[in-house]
Amino acid sequence: MVNILISLWFPVSEKRTGREENGLPADWSRVRNWLFGKTVITTDEEPSADSFVSKWPQIPILQDYSVKPNETFREHFPKKQLPLKPESNIDASKLNARIESVKHKMTSHQYLRSKKAVAYLERGAPSFQTEVLPSCFVKNALCAVKHGQQVTECIATWIKDGFAAGPFDCPPVQSFRVNPIIAIVQPGKVRPVLNVSAPDGASYNSCVDEYETEKVKMASAKQFGQNLLDCGKMSVMSKMGLISAYKQVPEEIKDLRLYMRRIRGNLR
């Protein structure tokens, strides 16, 4: 898979500071409960999407996003057919050339992982399913219906940017699976998430071969917090990421049926 590079820079300050000065509570037991998942970390108020600004004013707003709209709804909706081969905005050949140019600076493990990323971009990433899943049709979560306009506009943007295909009046592939959508409300926006843990006992996630997927170990919250304290108040943290990073990695064409979704009675 394509990795997102996150670099942390902690210039050491001359003075060590305490937890309170770095935004952490003085009560260490409260921090321990956070680290070990014994207490839910809450904010003063729940996120709100009230400041949502429509980017697709030409798409009609529906009164009910749980039913299929009439044909006029899709007159201004973007359209894209299912790809015949894996597609990505990343130029796999240029990435491969870059990898080969710095091969002498890489460990054997780093080189192999880089070549795997190139292979996934060219041929599509495998799903590592332990069995062939049957067709399914699972309704969207109520939160997706409630925030139907925002979810619709997100999917319209995915289609416009080439990350998704549709809309389709009928299943574009055999043995298709319709996965439910969940809407995650964040400040000023709603993020749609495809729930591939449904249905119970026959979901995409339940059939992933755990021995084929690569495990990535990251620093713990404790290690990060200690580094933050060691660096002090004048430290600077920076990061570099790739927009829509996961969407840049295509799936194998034969597995597209596993990622169908449904909104307002239309398959996408």
Task: Write the topology of this structure.
Elements (H helix, E strand, L loop, with lengths): L27 H8 L56 H10 L6 H16 L12 E2 L4 H5 L1 H14 L15 E3 L1 E6 L2 E6 L26 H11 L28 E4 L2 E2 L1
Parallel strand pairs: 1-2, 2-5
Antiparallel strand pairs: 3-4, 5-6
Summarize the structure.
The protein has 268 residues and is α/β, with parallel strands linked by helices.
The largest sheet is:
4 strands, mixed
Order of helices and strands: HHHEHHEEEHEE
Instruction: Please state the overall shape, judged from the principal axes of the Cα atoms.
Output: globular
- Helix coverage percent of residues? 10-25%
Gap from first CA to last CA: 24 Å
Mean pLDDT: 83
Radius of gyration, rounded? 22 Å
What is the tally of helical segments?
6
| Multimerization state | single chain
Poorly predicted regions are 1-14
- Beta-strand fraction estimate: 5-15%
Structural category: alpha/beta
Number of domains: 1
Number of E-state strands: 6
Spatial arrangement of strands, main beta sheet: 1-2-5-6
Which terms would index this structure?
268 residues; alpha/beta; 6 helices; 6 strands; 9% strand; disordered N terminus
